[in-house]
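Risk register update: the risk of archive-format incompatibility is retired. Evidence:
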Amino acid sequence: MRKSLCDAKILGVVTALSDQMLTAHRHTTYPCRMEQTPLGEQLQFAGGAMSKAGTAKDRVNDALSRLESMVEERLRAEKARADELTARLGKLEQQHEELKRVATEVEGRLERAMEYIRSLLAADQN
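Archived output:
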């Protein structure tokens, strides 16, 4: 019994010192000291009594909010990527049409050149 009282005092001093050493308070979803408490017991948190259910609900709401933010950010990134791919597809389709036009033009020139060569060969044989 004496040893556990001494341990509790040492733990209290260490905790107090570590609390004093912190220069900035960080928001956390967990209570400051992780203690085992029976279900339904009230916890002192942020200056007032809050039930475990209320604390859990706040943590769930906070997690959902973070998840929604991450999903929205991903959606924005994917929309930007989709817009970029749409623009790129449009550019590629224009290039494809231009290449088809050039190919048709080259094919026509080649046919005319082959006909000209045939006519020269036919005239040469006569």
